[in-house]
Every structure is written in C-alpha cells, then in structure tokens.
Write a structure and sequence with these properties.
By secondary structure, this protein is an alpha+beta fold. About 40% of the residues lie in helices and about 20% in strands. The chain contains 2 helices and 5 strands, in the order H-H-E-E-E-E-E.
Length: about 120
C-alpha cells in the first residue's frame, strides 16, 4: 500500500510492472496550465480591461503622458476613438493614437483647457 501511494505522488509506475494510469500522467500538465492561467493570463486580461475602461473615459481637458514621454492636455478626441489631439504648448497640437497614452490625470471640468507655462 505504501509503494502504491508513493508511486502516485512521484508519478512512477507501481511495483509489479503495470503501466501507469494515463490520467495520472496528465495531472501535472493540467496543474501547470491552471497555475499559468491564474497567475499570468487572468491578471493580464483584467489589466487590459481596466486600461480600456480608462481610455474610453478620456475627455477633453485631461492631462496625459504618452508612452514616448510627451506631456500635454487633450484638445480633442476623434469620434471613432482611435486618435487623440494633444495640446503640448499654446500653439502646438499633436495627434496620437489612443493606445499611445500611458498615464491620465483627470480634470474636474471636461471643457476647460489649461496649460502650464
């Protein structure tokens, strides 16, 4: 009995030359997949959903930082929500993809554009 239990934990064939159970050989692969799902895949999906929610709530007047390090204020948003017009100075506006936004600092009023000098 002791050898049989030990063989289950070590995934070795039981004494007597019998072939091991095929189900027992799949258990480690299933456990590895479960660990990958709960520690890598699921948190990444949650993070992506949160990022999409933040980008969808983007409005005119929000201060942003792009992934390239450009600081500015949202001057306009394309209706199909793919590009954002960012005001980086009094006379300069740059168009960025919405996915290029790294950080958003929300403003209380969505219509007021302010710039720091």
């Amino acid at each position: 009995m002791h050898n049989h239990i030990l063989s289950l934990f070590l995934f070795a064939s039981p004494a007597g030359g019998q072939t091991p159970n095929q189900f027992i050989q799949l258990v480690p692969l299933v456990l590895i997949f479960i660990v990958f799902y709960f520690f890598m895949i699921r948190p990444q999906q949650k993070k992506q959903k949160d990022r999409e929610k933040v980008l969808d709530s983007l409005k005119r007047g929000d201060k942003i930082v792009t992934i390239g390090g450009v600081h500015g204020t949202v001057a306009g948003i394309d209706p199909d929500k793919k590009t954002v017009l960012v005001q980086v100075s009094d006379t300069t506006k740059i168009k960025f993809d919405r996915t290029a936004i790294a950080n958003i600092d929300k403003q209380e009023s969505g219509d007021k554009l302010t710039t720091k000098e």
